[in-house]
Amino acid sequence: MFWPFTKTKRKVAASAEIASGLVAVQLALGGTDLITIFKAKDYFALGYVLGAHGGACQATGIPHDSEAELRVFAIGYHVLAESQAPEILEWSFSAQQNELFHKGAGFGGQQVIEFLRDKKNPVGLAKHLNSQAHVT
Questions:
Q1: Which element (helix H / strand E) includes 130?
Q2: Fewer C-beta neighbours within 10 Å, C or N terminus of the chain?
């Protein structure tokens, strides 16, 4: 039987779905969206989003700095921000040296990995957003 997707394409789709789904739930619980936190330049939250996607890649065996990893980011960010995804993703890649961004990225990646490994619900982004004054 013919299967139209390669193993790598299935990993990319699964990783993007995992990361964007977990982030979307937390954004909803935080009463905001990716575009709003981007406009507010919430470095920690934006780092968390990038880290969540990286963590999903790590957990599914997608190599760091690979074309497949970039596709995961592109797909996941498109789900979360549609036409503004490229701008937000490009900005996020350039913000990785910021201390708050870096902290958020590490936390987001860790929470996604713990979710997949231990079934521990990730709530760090939602808690952070609820402690901030984001306007939707």
A1: helix 124-131
A2: N
